[in-house]
Amino acid sequence: MKIIGLDVGSKTIGVAISDAFGWTAQGLTTLKWTEPNFDEELESIFKDLLEEHMIEKAVVGLPKNMNGSIGERGEASLKFADFLEEKFSIPTVLWDERLTTMAAEKVLIEADVSRKKRKKVIDKMAAVMILQGYLDSQS
Length: 139
Known about the structure:
Blueprint: E1 2-8, E2 12-18, E3 25-32, H1 40-52, E4 55-62, H2 72-88, E5 92-96, H3 100-110, H4 115-138
Parallel strand pairs: 1-4, 4-5
Antiparallel strand pairs: 1-2, 2-3
Keywords: Cytoplasm, Hydrolase, Nuclease, Ribosome biogenesis
GO molecular function: hydrolase activity, acting on ester bonds; nuclease activity
GO biological process, one term: rRNA 5'-end processing
């Protein structure tokens, strides 16, 4: 079963997918969007992604505050998960993503990736970390 992992931001969505065995996460792409527009274009993009990769489940990063409460960004992720479930009838898991973007940036800095290139891949890398965290918890 393939799973899609999503790091939902206000301007971009990092996308990762698992292998067919659900062991590893690979970065796929970063989508541009204008929150909170769940328009036909976004529906079409996700319909194509889910069909092309035969996705059976989604893991959406849930950015909680450090005290565990859910703030504005967390509410946006909840709405996005609802959108996926309602439009595509796909089971969705919310995954605590605290500090994943910071961890992704640290990995990219240690790999000596330039600031300009980091900006282009940070959301995709965060999606990989979200999905891999979920996959690791399932084994």
